[in-house]
């Protein structure tokens, strides 16, 4: 199933995604493993991961254990992996994906995406910095990186390829590339009621590119990487009032809002109850009036500022 088919099938197939991942290597051992298994049992099939989350080994183990139980088949799972910033040079793209597959112990990923349009200096350091603590960047040719991504698809290592955190100009750079073989099937960006991305969403729709929304519930209040001056999304009175009407949480209303806009959502949680709650959004629909009320909440506020 392609990502666009997956997005269109949201109502029928329960294709809401769960990135049971964290950007910190400090997650207690086994937490991600158990969370992914709980999610699969709850009905999740789209799992969003990345090498820099440091837990793809647990994700792969969870998938294999559920396959062994007969709960799922490999083709039921839609796994997304990501190319990190230090691996943009074309000669590094396939080896990086092969490393991901080795960690996951899978033969292919369903989607492989360029995580960010900017590149860091290649090397062992995930976040290379100079003696002054500043990031060391690397001049990158996104079109050359994309050609290497296309080669991974041709080799059967990735069923589909896409991008993340790309703006319109960067997407057009790929779409207008001479000799383009495959266009990006998706663009993963921050998207939620306080940051609805209407212009980017419309551009992507015109080019049949699916928007995958990360932080669809806002984020944690970790000031090391989050703009904590932004108000907590889930305390919004409009979301809570609508939730009360349907006997749903503000989180469920926010997820339902994105789904009805055609945005694939990837809520993150390690809490078993919230993992299950986040999936229970297919038994109600928001009215056109409610959708407009939520759209009006847009503040053009990013929680994940990506200051790097």
From TrEMBL:
One Pfam family linked to the record: Aldo_ket_red
Residues the record marks as active site: 53
Record-listed substrate binding positions: 138
One term of GO molecular function: Delta4-3-oxosteroid 5beta-reductase activity
Span of domain NADP-dependent oxidoreductase: 33-298
Domain of life: Eukaryota
Single Gene Ontology BP annotation: bile acid biosynthetic process
Family to which the UniProt record says this protein belongs: Belongs to the aldo/keto reductase family.
PANTHER family for the chain: ALDO/KETO REDUCTASE
Name of the protein in its database record: Aldo-keto reductase family 1 member D1
Organism whose genome encodes this protein: Athene cunicularia
Gene symbol of the encoding locus: AKR1D1
């Amino acid at each position: 199933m392609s990502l666009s088919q997956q997005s269109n099938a949201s109502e029928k197939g329960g294709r809401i995604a769960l990135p049971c991942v964290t950007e910190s290597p400090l997650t207690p051992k086994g937490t991600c493993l158990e969370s992914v298994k709980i999610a699969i049992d709850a009905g999740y099939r789209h799992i969003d991961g990345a090498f820099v989350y440091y837990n793809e080994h647990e994700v792969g183990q969870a998938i294999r254990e559920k396959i062994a139980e007969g709960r799922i088949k490999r083709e039921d799972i839609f796994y997304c992996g990501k190319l990190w910033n230090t691996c943009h040079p074309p000669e590094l793209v396939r080896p990086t994906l092969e490393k991901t597959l080795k960690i996951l112990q899978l033969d292919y990923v369903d989607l492989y995406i360029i995580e960010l349009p900017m590149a860091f200096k290649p090397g062992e350091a995930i976040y290379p910095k100079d003696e002054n603590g500043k990031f060391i960047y690397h001049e990158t040719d996104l079109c050359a990186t994309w050609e290497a991504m296309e080669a991974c698809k041709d080799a059967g290592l990735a069923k589909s390829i896409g991008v993340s955190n790309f703006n319109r100009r960067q997407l057009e750079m790929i779409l207008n590339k001479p000799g383009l073989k495959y266009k990006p099937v998706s663009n993963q960006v921050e998207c939620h009621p306080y940051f609805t991305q209407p212009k980017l969403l419309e551009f992507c729709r015109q080019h049949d590119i699916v928007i995958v929304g990360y932080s669809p519930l806002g984020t944690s209040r970790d000031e090391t990487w989050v703009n904590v001056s932004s108000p907590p999304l889930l305390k919004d009175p409009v979301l809570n009032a609508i939730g009360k009407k349907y006997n749903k949480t503000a989180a469920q209303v926010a997820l339902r809002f994105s789904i009805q806009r055609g945005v694939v959502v990837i809520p993150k949680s390690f809490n078993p109850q919230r993992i299950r709650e986040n999936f229970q959004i297919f038994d109600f629909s928001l009215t056109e009036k409610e959708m407009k009320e939520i759209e009006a909440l847009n503040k053009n506020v990013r929680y994940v500022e990506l200051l790097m």
